[in-house]
Amino acid sequence: MKALHMVSFLLVVVGALNWGLVGFFQYNLVESLLGASGLTTVVYSLVGVAAVVEVVTHKANCKLCGGK
Predict the structure, then answer these.
(1) Which pLDDT belongs to residue 68?
(2) In whole angstroms, what is the distance from residue 31 CA to residue 3 CA?
(3) Which residues make Cβ contacts (< 8 Å) with residue 30, sequence separation at least 6?
(4) What is this structure's pTM?
(5) Between vectors from CA 29 to CA 25 and to CA 33, what angle results, nearest 5°?
(6) Contact call for residues 28 and 22 (beta carbons, < 8 A)
(7) 62, 17 Cβ separation under 8 angstroms
(8) Residues 6+ positions from 11 with CB-CB distance below 8 Å
(9) Which terminus in the chain has less CB density within 10 A, N or C?
(10) Nearby residues of 31 by Cβ (< 8 Å), 6 or more positions away
């Protein structure tokens, strides 16, 4: 479960940083690294799934919200 949390957290951070770059500088790091291919769609989908995992498991993993 810890590995799932770490991977999903990393993907959420990567997604958030990419959105920050797009918002502030109109620079899409994911598309720059992978091109405008189907692979970018896979990455965006994984980031979305990771966000759902983080939302669902947050309370159990967060010390401030009542986790262990």
Answers:
(1) 54
(2) 26
(3) 14, 18, 40, 43, 44
(4) 0.79
(5) 150
(6) yes
(7) no
(8) 46, 47, 50, 51
(9) C
(10) 40
